[in-house]
């Protein structure tokens, strides 16, 4: 009979990792199935390239398999895996010589997002459309995308997200807020383009 | 936009803490000031409401996102099996 404990959706991640460290392949596959989508999303956000993201997915789980015994269970398994993935993705970006942006004043970001405008509703309406939201996310820098993915899409706590990014809780809050404002700006811009084009739906 | 000072906060100060307000991470004393400001400042109230809606939509993205595609998962597991066999 197949390991009953591993068929259970609620088997805790630390238990799966302990079994993996003891060489249990099925436990490792369970862990992989549970977290691969999150790792792939983050890797895609940082690399901007599906093929590189898939390489990072493999590197991440291979590294997790080899280092399962070193998992201390202080944070969540997802945060541990996302930390490995992020480090791998940024190593790749560094090799490619790509670097990130800018620190505009908050009020500039706010104005771009529709703060003080006649029609701030445009951003909420645009955000309700999944295709528009996905496209707007793709226009952001990898740094903005990763904080939105960790905190809002994967639902990591502020502390977990800060640990994955290697920054303080205060810095995380600031980075998250700026990323959300830039996303709002991108959504608003996409809504304006639609209006200019005469499109609506 | 003309800055207003309402409830002990200026519009730019409300803008600066909007994410923390949406995430429920502000101290009660600051929440009180933000809410006083929002009640009296239509510009900030409208922007804040729509900004909050956007964050809610973003959070739903996780529920709507497909899991890793089956072929990606199959390749991953195959690569890992090979790597383990070589180890």
What is the gist of this entry?
Chain A is mainly α.
Largest sheet properties of chain A: none
Total of helices of chain A: 11
The level of helicity of chain A is over 70%
**Biggest interface:** A-B, 47 and 40 residues
Number of strands of chain A: 0
Any idea what the shape of chain B is?
elongated
Coarse structural class of chain A:
mainly alpha
What's the overall geometry of chain A? elongated
Name the beta content range of chain A. Answer: under 5%
Assembly level: heterodimer
In DSSP terms, counting alpha (H) and pi (I) runs of 4 or more, how many helices of chain B? Answer: 4
Instruction: Give the SSE order of chain A as H and E letters.
Output: HHHHHHHHHHH
- Please tell me the total number of domains of chain A: 2
Computed CA radius of gyration of chain B, to the nearest angstrom: 23 Å
Q: How many domains, in number, for the residues of chain B?
A: 1
Compute the average pLDDT of chain B. 85
Structure overview:
- The complex is a heterodimer of chains A (201) and B (87).
- Chain A is built from eleven helices and no strands.
- The longest helix of chain A is centred in the C-terminal third of the chain and has 29 residues, at 169-197.
- The mean pLDDT of chain A is 85.
- Chain A folds into two domains: 8-95, Rna Polymerase Sigma Factor, Chain: A (Orthogonal Bundle), CATH 1.10.1740.10; 106-197, Winged helix-like DNA-binding domain superfamily/Winged helix DNA-binding domain (Arc Repressor Mutant, subunit A, Orthogonal Bundle), CATH 1.10.10.
- Chain A has 201 residues and is mainly α.
- Chain B is mainly α.
- Chain B has one domain (5-86).
- Chain B is built from four helices and two strands, in the order E-E-H-H-H-H.
- Chain B has a two-stranded antiparallel sheet with strand order 1-2.
- In chain B, strand 1 (5-6) and strand 2 form a beta hairpin.
- In chain B, helix 1 (11-22) packs parallel to helix 3 (42-64).
- Chain B is elongated.
- The N and C termini of chain B lie far apart (63 Å).
- The mean pLDDT of chain B is 85.
């Amino acid at each position: 009979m197949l390991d009953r404990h591993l068929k259970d959706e609620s088997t805790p991640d630390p238990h799966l990792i302990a079994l993996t460290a003891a060489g249990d392949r099925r436990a490792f596959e369970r862990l992989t199935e549970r977290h691969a989508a999150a790792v792939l999303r983050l890797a895609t956000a940082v690399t901007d390239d599906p093929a590189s993201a898939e390489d990072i997915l493999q590197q991440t789980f291979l590294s997790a398999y080899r280092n399962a015994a070193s998992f201390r269970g202080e944070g969540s398994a997802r945060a541990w895996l996302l930390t490995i993935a992020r480090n791998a993705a940024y190593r790749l970006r560094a090799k490619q010589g790509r670097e990130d942006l800018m620190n505009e004043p908050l009020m500039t970001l706010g104005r771009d997002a529709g703060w003080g405008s006649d029609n701030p509703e445009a951003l909420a309406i645009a955000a309700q459309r999944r295709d528009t939201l996905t496209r707007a996310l793709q226009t952001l820098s990898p740094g903005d995308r990763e904080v939105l993915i960790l905190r809002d899409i994967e639902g990591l706590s502020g502390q977990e997200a800060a640990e994955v990014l290697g920054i303080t809780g205060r810095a995380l809050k600031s980075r998250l807020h700026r990323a959300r404002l830039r996303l709002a700006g991108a959504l608003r811009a996409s809504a304006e383009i639609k209006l200019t084009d005469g499109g609506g739906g | 936009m003309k800055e207003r000072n309402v409830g002990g906060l200026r519009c730019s100060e409300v803008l600066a803490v909007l994410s923390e307000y949406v995430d429920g991470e502000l101290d009660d004393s600051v929440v009180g000031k933000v809410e006083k400001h929002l009640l009296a400042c239509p510009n900030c109230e409208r922007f804040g409401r729509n900004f909050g809606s956007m964050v809610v939509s973003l959070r739903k993205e996780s529920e709507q996102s497909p899991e890793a595609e089956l072929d990606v998962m199959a390749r991953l597991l195959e690569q890992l099996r090979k790597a383990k066999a070589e180890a």
